[in-house]
Amino acid sequence: MTLRRFSLIAAAVCAFLVVVVTLVLSGALERSTAIAVDKFTQLAGAGAAMVCYWRAGLRRQGTARRWRLWMAASMASLVVGLGAWTWGQVFLGVPLPSTTVAPLGFILVPVLALFAVLVLGHGGAGSLPNHRSRVVIVLDGLIVVGSLFVLTWVSLLESMVRAWATSGPGFATVVAHPAAYLVMLVVLLVSSWSHRSVRQLPMLFVALAGLGQSASGWVFAFLVSKGVTDIPVAADIGFMVCPALYFLSSIAPSSAGRERVAAGKLRAGEMLHILVPYLPMLITGLFIVVGTATGVRLNPFEIYVGLAVVLLVIARQLFTLIDNVRLLEQLRDSRERLRHQAYHDPLTGVANRVLFRERLDAALENPDPLVVLFIDVDGFKDVNDNYGHAEGDAVLRIVAQRLQHCVRAQDTVARLGGDEFGILVDGYPSPPEEIGRRVLDAMSSPHRTAGGVHHIRASIGISHRDAPDPALTADDLLGSADAAMYTAKRLGKGMVVVHGSVEAELS
C-alpha cells in the first residue's frame, strides 16, 4: 500500500472514531446502547486488524511473514477477549465479567505482540545475528518493568489490587493486563534502538495502541480500586481507539531499512540502550532506600520482586559479558585474517614480497648463515597462452606447494610476483647447491591440473651469507640471487646458478 492511500484510510478511520466517540459521550444514546456501540466498534477494529494481518502475512515470506502472523494471532486473542467481554456486558448484563475468558484473551494480546516485535527485530536489517540479542531485549524489558512495578506497588498498586483483584481472573484484568502491555512497550522501545527494522510505521501504530491499552488499563484499575463496579463509558474511550490503531498498523506501509541514521544519533541511541535498563532500577532503589529510612517496611512480596529484578540484572550482565567475549574473538580473528591477507599471496597462500623482505631483514640481524633462492618458472607463459590463465593459476599453486615441501617449516617460501618465487633458508643445514637441486628435482615432475599435464622447469639463482657481514643488506642478497637466476636462463634454463659459480641440472 502506498503512503498516500494509507493516509486517506487513516484520515477516514480517525473521522469515524471522532463521530463514534462524540455520539457515545453526547448522551444522545441510552447507556446500554452506548456500551453496545463502544464494544462493537472495538470488535470491528480488532477483527479487521486480524484479517489484514493474516492476509498480509500470507503474501510475504521470511521475517515479514512471521511477525505479521504473530500479530494476527494477537488480534485473534483480542477478538476473543472483546467477544467474551461484550457478551457479558451487552447480553448478560454483567458489569465486570471477569469470570469469563475475557481476561485470558486480553492478557495474551501483548504477549503475542511481544513475539512479533522479537521476530521483527531478530530477522530484519540491522539486527544482531544471534538468539542472545532477543534474550537481552526481553531481559531489559523485564528489568525496567520489574523496577517500575516495585515502585508503583510500594506507592500505589498494592492498595488497588487489594481493593478488588483477589481472584486469578481479577488480577489478570486489573494488574497483569496493563503490566503486560508495559513489558511489550519497553521491549519494543529497547529493540528499536538497536534494530532499524523495528523503526517502521506499522510498529509505531502498535506502540501507540499498546500505550493506549496500558494507560486505559491503569485507569480501569484505579476506578476498580475506588469501588466502581460499573465503568463509565467515557473511561472506555482509550480501549475504543486501540483496535483502530492496530488496524492501521496492519495496513501501514513498511519502511524498514530505508532511513539513514546519523552516526551521532546512532551513538546516542546505543548509549541510551545501555543505560535504560538501569535508570528505572536506580530510581526505584533510591525510592525504597528513602522509604525504609523514613519507616516504611517492605513486605515479602516486594522483597521477592526486588530480588528477581537483581537476578535479571545479573543475567543481563552475563549475556553482555558473553557477547563481549564473542565480539573480542571475532575482532581477533578479523585482525588475523587482515594480517594474513596483508602478508600472503592470495592465489598460492605463501608469503608475499612484503613478508619475505621483513623476514630477510630480520635474518640478517642474526649471526646464522642464510640462503636466498630466486626462482623463475620456465615455460609458464606458454601455459597461459595455450591453456588460459585459470590453468596458469593452477600451475602456480602446484609450484608453491612443491617449494614448501622442499624446505623446512621454519623456512619462508614467497611469491615475489608473476611466476617468480623466493625461498629464504635461515641457518641452512646443507650447502646452497643441494637446496637448489632439491627444488629442481621437485619442479621436474609433471604438473597435473584439471586442464592437463604440464612439463615446466625452473631457473634458480642463489645468494648466501656464511658469516655476519654488517655491510651486507637485503637488497644485496636479493639482487645477487636475481642476477644469478638470469644467468641460469641465459645458460639454457632448468639450471641452478650460485652467485659466483654455475651448477647445471636437468637436461
What does this structure look like?
This protein has 507 residues and is an alpha+beta fold. It has two domains: 3-131 and 167-275; 353-504, 2-Layer Sandwich (Alpha-Beta Plaits), CATH 3.30.70. The chain has 16 helices and eight strands. The strands form two sheets. A six-stranded mixed sheet has the order 2-3-1-6-7-8, sandwiched between helices. Strands 4-5 form a two-stranded antiparallel ribbon. Strand 7 (495-498) and strand 8 (501-504) form a beta hairpin. The protein is elongated, with a radius of gyration of 38 Å. The N and C termini lie far apart (78 Å). 39% of the residues are buried. It holds the Pfam family GGDEF. The chain crosses the membrane at residues 40-57, 69-88, 100-123, 135-156, 168-191, 203-225, 231-251, 272-291, 303-322.
Question: Which key features would you list for this structure?
Answer:
two-stranded antiparallel sheet; disordered C terminus; Putative diguanylate cyclase; 507 residues; 2 domains; elongated; single chain; 8 strands; Alpha-Beta Plaits; 6-stranded mixed sheet; alpha+beta
Can you summarize this structure?
Helices cover 68% and strands 9% of the residues. It is of the alpha+beta class and 507 residues long.
Instruction: Give the percentage of residues in beta strands.
Output: 5-15%
> How does the major sheet shape up?
6 strands, mixed
Q: What is the ordering of alpha helices and beta strands?
A: HHHHHHHHHHHHEHHEEHEEEHEE
**Fraction of residues in helix:** 55-70%
Any idea how many domains?
A: 2
Pfam family, one: GGDEF
Transmembrane segments: 40-57, 69-88, 100-123, 135-156, 168-191, 203-225, 231-251, 272-291, 303-322
Keywords: Membrane, Transmembrane, Transmembrane helix
Domain GGDEF: 368-501
